[in-house]
Every structure is written in C-alpha cells, then in structure tokens.
Amino acid sequence: MWQKEIPYKIYLEESEMPKAWYNVRADMKRKPAPLLNPQTHVPMTFEELRTVFCDELVRQELDDSTPWIPIPEEISSFYKMYRPSPLVRAYCLEEKLQTPAKIYYKFEGNNTSGSHKLNSAIAQAYYAKKQGLKGVTTETGAGQWGTALSMACAYLGLDCRVYMVKVSYEQKPFRREVMRTYGAFVTPSPSDTTQVGRKILERHPGTSGSLGCAISEAVEAAGSREGYRYVLGSVLNQVMLHQSVIGLESKAAMDKYGIKPDIIIGCAGGGSNLGGLIGPFMGEKLRGEQDYQIIAVEPASCPSLTRGKFAYDYCDTGMVCPLAKMYTLGSGFIPSASHSGGLRYHGMSPILSQLYDDGLMEARTVEQTAVFEAAQQFARVEGTLPAPESSHAIRVAIDEALKCKETGEEKTIFFGLTGTGYFDMMAYGKYNDGKMEDYIPTDAELQAGFDGLPHIE
Amino acid sequence: MWQKEIPYKIYLEESEMPKAWYNVRADMKRKPAPLLNPQTHVPMTFEELRTVFCDELVRQELDDSTPWIPIPEEISSFYKMYRPSPLVRAYCLEEKLQTPAKIYYKFEGNNTSGSHKLNSAIAQAYYAKKQGLKGVTTETGAGQWGTALSMACAYLGLDCRVYMVKVSYEQKPFRREVMRTYGAFVTPSPSDTTQVGRKILERHPGTSGSLGCAISEAVEAAGSREGYRYVLGSVLNQVMLHQSVIGLESKAAMDKYGIKPDIIIGCAGGGSNLGGLIGPFMGEKLRGEQDYQIIAVEPASCPSLTRGKFAYDYCDTGMVCPLAKMYTLGSGFIPSASHSGGLRYHGMSPILSQLYDDGLMEARTVEQTAVFEAAQQFARVEGTLPAPESSHAIRVAIDEALKCKETGEEKTIFFGLTGTGYFDMMAYGKYNDGKMEDYIPTDAELQAGFDGLPHIE
Asked: Which of A113, A174, A340, A376 to mutate to test the interface with B (most CBs of B within 10 A)?
C-alpha cells in the first residue's frame, strides 16, 4: 500500500464529487423487510405511501435493486455550496494519544445546519418542489433536522412547517430563530393547529411535548393541507440513500491517497449518518471485494442495537406511521431526561438493522460522561467542537487508537464527525460543572418497552 | 483577462498556503503614528511595551519596515487544521439579484471560534508559549475573541484567563461554556479578583460591566501574575499582520483563476478583519502595481471612520493602555444598547486610520435593520448564516451588485465574510420579530465623546 504525504484535510475537486447516490440494498442478499400498513399489516404500496411522501421519494423508498441513483443537477449545485466536506487526518489527536494508529474523520458540520442532515433535506425538498407541491411538514426535537430542512426549503422557495417539541421551542430558542431566519413556520408542539395536538392539550394541559406527538402533528398537518407532504430526517431507506454521499466522498478521497480504513466507526441514532458513512464500504464488503470492521456506536441510555429486539414496530409513538422491521426498544421507550443530545430514537434504520442482524457490523454502547470526556479532548487538540452525537464515535475511535498503542498495531481508523456542538452548550456546561450523569436502563425498563411491540409473525 | 471555469469554492492546496505574513506598513509612505506612553506622551519603547506584551509581539508591533514576516512552523500546522478557508463564488446570490456582477467572498467562519479571530489568537499564544510564559489574559465582550484565544491556548497547553463582560457572561452562557470546554478560566467582569474590579464593584455594586472595565482587569491580572502577558484581538499592528493571511490566501486563490476584484469590501470594528483582508491588495495599490476600490463598512451607530476624528486617543476606557493615533469617537463613547453584534469599538486600527486619511480607501455606514435584511437574504440563497458583523459587508456588496444591475457593468466584487451568526440568534430573533431598531448618534452625542480626547499636538 503506497501513501502520498497526507494533508491535514483532503478536499475533492468539484469534478470528483459523486454524481450518483449508492443504494446499498442492491448489494444486500437479505433485503430489509418492507414497511407494513399499521392497520392491515400488509406491505405498504406505492399508492398508500404517496399520500404521505412525495412520489419520487416513495420510489426511492421501495427500490431495493437499483445500485446507483443519479443525483439531479439542482441537488448537485446545492451540494457544491457546502460540499465536498473535508476528510481530515487527525494528526494532532494521534500525537496527543501517542498512538501508531492513523486516524481520519469525515467532517459534516461545515454548514449552517451544523450537521449531515442537510444532505437528505435538500433531496427531499427538491423532489417535493419538482412534484409541484407547495410545502413540507416535519417535526424536530433539538432542531438539527428542522434547521437543515428550512435551509433547503428557503433555497428552493418551498413552504416549510416545523413542529418543534415545546420544551425545546422554549428552552432552546437559538435553533428556532435559525429556522425562522430561513423562513420556516415553527410551531411549538403540542399546538392547537391540529386535532391530535388539541386532544393532547386537553388531556395534558401543561405538557411540554414529545417527539412522538410532534411527528403526529406534522403528519396530520401534511395530510390536511392541499399540496403538502411529510418528510423525515432519518430511519427511512431514502435517507440512507441520500446520505451515501458522505461515504462516497470519503471513499473517493481515500482512494486518491491510497488510504484503506481497517475500522469504520459511526454514531447511530436512527441511522442516517451511519448508513451514509458506511454505504460504499459496506457495498464492497457485501460484494466480497474488501473487508472492514464496522462499528455502530450508540448511547448506553438508548441501546436499540445492543439491547433491542429485531421486530416489527411503530416508527412513531402515535402509531399512525407504517410499521418497520428494525432493532427497537419499543415505540413507548423514552430515554432518561439525563440523556443529552440526539440519538434518542427508539428504533434503527431497517437497512442497518438487517446488516447488523446478518453480522456485517458490530455495535457498542458508551456512557455519556465518557463521551463528553472524549469530546473535550478532541476539541482541545483538533480544534473543532464536536456535537454530542458525533462524540460517541470519537469515544470509540480514541479507545481503538489506545488499543493500537498497547499492541503497536498501525491500524487506520476512520470515523464520522457528523456535526458541531454549538447548540449543545447546555450539555457541555453540565459536563464542565461536573454535573453530568450516566444512565443505563434496567432490564425491567426495557421489558416495558418490548411489551408495547405489535404482535406480527 | 482569462478565466477558467470558477468552482463554487476555491480551496488552496496546503503547499499553496502563505508561508509569511505581509506587513503593509513596509509599503506605506506615511507610516502609522507610534503608540505613546499615556503619562509622558512619548513614544512607547520596546522595554515599556514588553511588560504588557510578549517580546516577539512587541517587535512585530514596532516593525514598520520588514514586508514579510515568516509564519513559524507550529503556527502553520495549526492553520492547516482550519485553513485554507474557502474563497466562495456567490453564484446563488448573483442569480437571486440578477446582477451581471461577479461576487466572491472569503469565508472565515469554518472553525469552532466561528470567526477570523483565531488567525491572530494562535500567533499571540504561540509567541507567549515560546517565551516560556505560563499564560495570557484578555477581555471579551460577546465572546468571539475569547473563544478563539481559548482554542489556541488549549492547543498549546497555555493558561488562558478571560475577563468576560458580566452581562454577556450571564445572558450569553453558550460562548462562556465553549471557552470553559477549551479549558479557559472565565471570570465575569467586574470581579473581586483585581483591584480595579473591586473598586468598580464598590462604587457600582449592581453593575453589569463593560468592555473598558474588562480590559482594565485583564491588563492588571497580567501584570500582577508572574509569567503572564495581556493579549488583544484587534486594533494593534501585530493583529493586522497575522490577519494578512486572509488577504494572502484570497489573492493566491484569485491569481490561480485569473480573477481580479474591482471592489473589495470589509466590515470594520477595530479593523482586524478589514486590515487582513485588504493587506496584499493595498500593498499592490501602494506600490502602484494595481488599483482597487476598497470600502470599509461600519455601523451607523458607531461611525469611527466616517464621523470620528483622526487624533491620539486612549485605547481603553480605563485609560491605562498606550495612546494610539487613530480615527476615534473618543474612549468614552459607548454605542447605543440597541446596537447588535460587534463593531462597537470607539477607535480604529492606526494602520487603517492612516490609509483612510491618505485617501487609499473609502468608508460607508449602514444601519442595522438593512444589515439584517441583507444577512437574511444571503443566508437563504447562499446557505451560510452570517455574523451580524460580516453582514455589514454583505449589505454593501449587495448594494454594489444592484448598482451593476442598473448600469450593466460586470464588476468583480469581493468581500470578507468574517464569521457565522450562531451565537447571535438573539439579534436575529429581534429582527425576525420586527423589533429591531436603528440608531444614529447625534452630533451632540459625538461631541461628548470628542470632549474626552487627550490634548496632544
């Protein structure tokens, strides 16, 4: 293996940027199970799904055989505003750790939404616009996805309606104002603008909302407005497809310099980042061309892969969305309030769930104090302040690099740095004050979540 | 003039990055006036200044004849973590404005400090470390400079003590926590850790602090601790020197593609960004090799170039720092509380003041509502959410592009986008709510500031 001198940051030329997304399902021998109608338990058809999602996205959702989907010119143009994202050689972290390992990361935070979410937001907004729709609705918790979507919609001149969990709307006004600056209508959820919102407000007048409720409101709002569809930032097959741009760029940059990763590490919530990051590498593995050790990292407080069940479950707590077969903690599972940042979703992308079940990747859990310790160490030597989500991957990357230090192995470690932590300073403050707590759900708590699983053979 | 097809973003290769800073004073026929001792009114000597600043920085401060100062290897390595910053072709803004003008901007916000301040922070921290000092002290208002300095100090293992204006410390906890994450000691000012702080607290028990007071505390803290020096993020000649990396990279990127700007636009507070941005272009102008229209943009609420006096003045409100000859509103001038964001300094870099006085550049004022309007328009089409400071330059760039639309001229407009607005969402929120106000100081208000000027022939 030859290696040119590796710069700190590898940027692709525009001409080297991916021209098509990679659909890993095409290379999977065991395909992810289909989405089911929540009433009939029969696989969802194109006609059923197109009432919720726009047509082209439904096609992408259902297509498990086409390996390459061309990226439309307009999306490519938008990508060029903030992509290619840099592949960074973590020279300073390596030196700090005194490890013989070579560490690389793909940094997706260099755009105003602060994360990789924009890669799918622009695609989903584009297809909605192309279909002649007026707007899209979505939900957002802390606001990363909502921000990305409002940026994409502003660019395309598409109406954007975001249901934001009320407690975040009130306590995290910064992301709310970013969305409003991009022209989005942001509504605290639950609200009196939907039936489901009004019902919840009647029953729980003082509630501060939940993601499950915000999803239900966003879905209802899309259905009740002419020319609107609902969009979602993770879990779905279409999202993994769009996010493959992360892995494709990474692979192209590595190939230019003769770099081959031994270990690939990504944080995993719903799976949007991990699926995109590992996509083309997993493809090589599935086709038997290369082998990689692939590690999904999840919080100990929300361990869907490591402690969940591989079963059909509701995607939302309101149980109105289709059923997906995935590793899940049950749609009623809610991570402890002491859990900081994202990666709070009860389930996992059906694609990643299948790959994990087939033994094609590993999963590990990490506790949040250790995650913030890694985040702080990384920030101080590499400069970039990482998002708590991304820092799960940093934790494991550092652990693996320290193992190399013990064994003397010169492994090449590659991880995804999904975003920046600018809007997570409350959590950092807790850590700085020594007030951060770890939390691991008990078996009994998990069982309660499993008890709510639908009974499907 | 030939032009290759211009990509959205031009990144230099590492090998093309500047290896030396450019010292514009070397090419100035009329040099900036020397700093004066505030007691004796005699030019400050090396020996006097080295009690406040570290030795190498004093040399740089006083050197007005060496055109190129090599960038030390360690600083170059740090630069490689977040530089080169992209030179961006604003294709989307051009299309939105339907202008024949070609618009470029140099984006300095792609690092965790969120601005160009890091370029000088690492240099100042490096020389302090090299001199064997233990740490540095500084003041910060909203926190941009403090954040940059704490990042630089974390990287070098240098102690960093930041006096943060109390009202910002309490009401803007996010930047405070970023600094703490990077290991800085952040003290709300006024504090009981200094004599001057205790005095002020005695006289004004409930005060929420001011930048002037924080400077005084930081200077005292540096003087009273063995192995500490004080550092400053703008105004000084050394800062203009370090920031020249912005202009040098811009020029190298432009030369690669045969781009020659007709108009160069930068926002101006103390002058750190503007001085760096225009440095090498001004050098060509001074040497008679090229001509450029150069525009400094300042807020109408703090108009030091356009309505100030060119005179010796105190650099701080505490009147303990050396006197500088500059365009100034008087050290007692404080911009209205309705003024958002930075660019609040009463004076202007002595270098820029001299260049302006010599007619080598223009200055314009803009009002903040118009600035935020430009910021929002820019964010929606170009993606990046700009800092309010940077948006002053955006406002004038858009105005100039619209003029080209009227006249049909295909001018090349180049401006500095100094940073991101993530930590300015309170101001954006005000704008989003339609509650932003403009403010222009009256002649009488300005006269009150001028009355406080020291009497120096």
From this structure: A174
Output helix, strand, coil percentages for chain B, rounded to the nearest 5.
Answer: 45, 15, 40
Consecutive H or E run containing A56: helix A55-62
Residue A382 at interface with chain B, using a CB cutoff of 8 Å: yes
Count other C-beta atoms under 10 Å from residue B98's C-beta.
9
> Residue A341 pLDDT more than 80?
no
Of A8, A91, A178, the CB nearest to B385: A178
The DSSP output letter for A52 is T
Tell me the pairing of strands A20-22 and A68-70. Answer: antiparallel
Does A38 sit behind a cis peptide bond, omega within 30 degrees of 0 on the bond before it?
Answer: no
Which B-chain residues 88-127 have CB contacts (< 8 A) with chain A?
A: 91-92, 110-112, 114
Residues of chain B with pLDDT under 70: 1-4, 341, 457
CB burial string B342-376: b at 16+ within 10 A, e below: bbbbbbbbbbbbbbbbeebbbbbbbbbebbbbbbb
Give B242's contacts (C-beta < 8 A, 6+ positions apart).
B21, B119, B120, B123, B124, B276
ipTM: 0.93
- A409 reaches B (C-beta below 8 A): no
pLDDT tens for A99-122 read 999 999 999 999 999 999 999 999
What pLDDT, on the 0 to 100 scale, is given for residue A4? 54
Q: Name chain B contacts of A91, Cβ cutoff 8 Å.
A: 77
Query: B93 by DSSP, 3-state: which?
Result: helix
Would you call A422 and B151 a contact, using CB atoms and an 8 Å cutoff? no
Contact A177 B380 (CB under 8 A): no
SS3 A248: helix
Mutate to test the interface with B, among A16, A104, A177 (most CBs of B within 10 A): A177
pLDDT at A344: 83
- Quick one: pLDDT at residue A216? 87
Q: Which long-range contacts (CB under 8 A, 24 or more apart) does A316-319 make?
A: A316/A212, A316/A215, A316/A216, A316/A219, A317/A210, A317/A211, A317/A212, A317/A213, A317/A215, A317/A216, A318/A196, A318/A212, A318/A213, A318/A215, A318/A216, A318/A219, A319/A38
For B407, the 3-state DSSP assignment is helix
**A450 is written with which tokens?**
């499993």
Does B384 touch chain A if contact means CB atoms closer than 8 Å? yes
| Matching residue, tokens 């921290």 | B125
Q: Residue B364 is inside which H or E element, if any?
A: strand B362-366
pLDDT at A204: 86
CB interface of A with B, residues 153-182, below 8 Å = 154-155, 173-175, 177-178, 180-182
**Which of A 273-332 lie inside 8 A of B, CB atoms?**
none
Task: Give the CA dihedral A233, A234, A235, A236, nearest 10 degrees.
Answer: 50
Measured between CB atoms, which of A180, A379, A381 is closest to B432? A180
B112 and A385 in contact by Cβ < 8 A?
A: yes
Give me the percent of chain A exceeding a pLDDT of 70. Answer: 98
Strand residue runs (E) in B284-358:
293-299, 309-314, 323-328
Give chain B positions within 8 Å (CB) of A119. Answer: none
Note if the bond before A190 is cis, omega within 30 degrees. Answer: yes
- Check: pTM over 0.90? Answer yes or no: yes
What is the Cα–Cα distance from A234 to A267, expressed in whole angstroms? 13
- The first and second tokens of residue A245, run together, are 């741009």
Cis omega (within 30 of 0) on the bond before B190?
yes
pLDDT tens per residue, range B325-374: 999 999 888 777 777 767 888 999 999 999 999 999 999 999 999 999 99
Chain A positions in Cβ-Cβ contact with residue B181 (cut-off 8 Å): 376, 379, 385, 428, 431-432
Mutation target vs B (from A178, A373, A426, A435; most B CBs, 10 A cutoff): A178
Q: Which amino acid is at A452?
A: G
